[in-house]
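Because showing beats explaining, we think one record worth quoting, sequence and C-alpha cells together, and here it is:
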Amino acid sequence: MKRKVRGFMIQGTASSVGKSLIVAGICRALRREGFDVAPFKPQNMSNNAAVCACGGEIGRAQALQARAAGLEPTVDMNPVLLKPEGNEGSQVIVQGRPWGKVDGGNFLQVRAALKDAVMESFRRLAEQHDVIIVEGAGSPAEINLREGDIANMGFAETADCPVVLVGDVDKGGVFASLVGTLALLSDAERARIKGFLINKFRGTRALLDPGLRELERRAGKPVLGVLPFLPELRLPEEDGFFLCGTRWPEGAKVRIGVLALPHLSNASDFDPLRSEPGVGVRFLFHPRDVEECGAVVLPGTKNTIADLIRLHETGMAQAVRSFALSGGAVAGICGGYQMMGERVLDPDGVESSLAGAPGLGLLPVETVLSREKVTTEAWGMTIQGYPVGGYEIHAGRTARVDGGRWFSRLTRRTTGEVVEDGCAVEGGRIWGTYLHGVFDSDGFRRPWLNGLGADLSGVLAIVRDPVEEGLDVLADALVRGTEWTALKEVMGL
C-alpha cells in the first residue's frame, strides 16, 4: 500500500521574510503533537552550511529544522545547495557532495539537470515520514527565473503541494508584496496558494486588522495567522550579517571583533559568544576597529585567497598583525585559520586564477588548496585539555612548517581517524582550527573568555540548551498566532 504523505510548502514574498524559522516552528509544533514530520528545501543558496553524519553538506537552516523535528539531518533535506563564490558564480552541492560550478550564464540550463535529484530526495523523505514541510527559496514571483524552476512553484506543481505565502510586515509594504506576488503568478499557481501568514508583527493589532480584511477581500484568500516579532530567539540564522551588529552592545566587558570578510561563511559559529553575559560581538569593517577589541577572530570564508588579498589591500591584515604582536588574542576558524599562516597556495585553481597569496604570518603553517573536500563531524580535546566538538568543512590541507603546536586532537565521525587539528602559539593566545562550532563547547568557550577578562567563573552554566528553548518558544508563538487547526487542514492533517 502506497504511503500517504501530507505536507505543504512555505513560500515568501522575498528572502529573509522568515520562511526558515516558520518551517522550523511548524516542525517542532507538529512533532510535539506526535506527528512524524521532516523538513525539505529543494534548492538553497547559502555559505552557512552544516555537515550530516554521512559527511554531506546541507544548508544550516535545514539542520535546524531537522532538529526541530527530532531528526538527524540528512542530505535529502536539502538536495541542491548553491554556495556563492563571487558576484556571479556558485559551487553546486547535490545531495551533499560537490557537483560543479554555475554562473549566471548557465544556471537556467543546469536547473533542469538538478530536478531529478530534487525529486529523488523528496520521494525518499516521503517514504520515511508522514508529513513533509517544504521551504521555498526567495520569492515565487521572480518571473525571470520561472522557467525550469525547482525552488518554488515549479517544485510545488511537480510534487502537488499546497502553498502558504509569508510576508514580512516589519519591512513595510507587506500588503503590496503579498498582492503583487499573486499578480505575477499564473492562475494555476494562484490557486495553489491557500492563504497568507503575516510575520514579524509588533504593535497594536487593531491597527493591522483593517488591512488584513482588505487583503482577504482583494486576494480572495484567508490570512491564516499573524506571527510576532521575536528578536530574542537564540537560534542560528542563515544569513551571516544579521548575526552580529556593527556596534558594541552596551555594557560589554569583553569585546570580540569578527572580520567582515566579503565571502564570510558559517557566521553562526559566533552565536554562543553573544549569549554570554558581559561579552560583546560585532563585525569589523575598518582597520581602526581592531584597536577597540579584546580579541579578534577571522571567520570562515568561501574564497580564502580573494578575502586574504582584500585584507592586505585594506590594511586590515596589518592591523590584525600589529594587534597580535602587541599582545592581543587572535583566533581563526577554517578559512580564517588558513589566512593566519605564512601563505595560502592554489596550484590547481580551486578558488582563484592566482597561484596563491601571502598570509598574515601569525601561525607557522602553510595551506595548499585542493579539489578534495573534507566534510565531517568531529570531536576531541584541545592541547590544553578542553573538550571541543563540531564539524569540518574545507577544501585544503594545512601543515605546520616551523614550530607551533596543534590546537586540538580530533576524532572524525565519517572515518574514525584521529587527527591533529589546527595550530597554537604564544601559549594559546594565538590559534587557529578547522573546527566549526568550537565555541559551542562550554568547556572550551568559558575558559577562553575568562582568559580575556570575562570572569564567568561565578556565572551559572546554561541549564537548558538555548536552541531547544528557542525552538519551543517559536512553536508556541506559531500555534498561538495562527489559525492552527486551519493550517493543519491545509496539510491534510
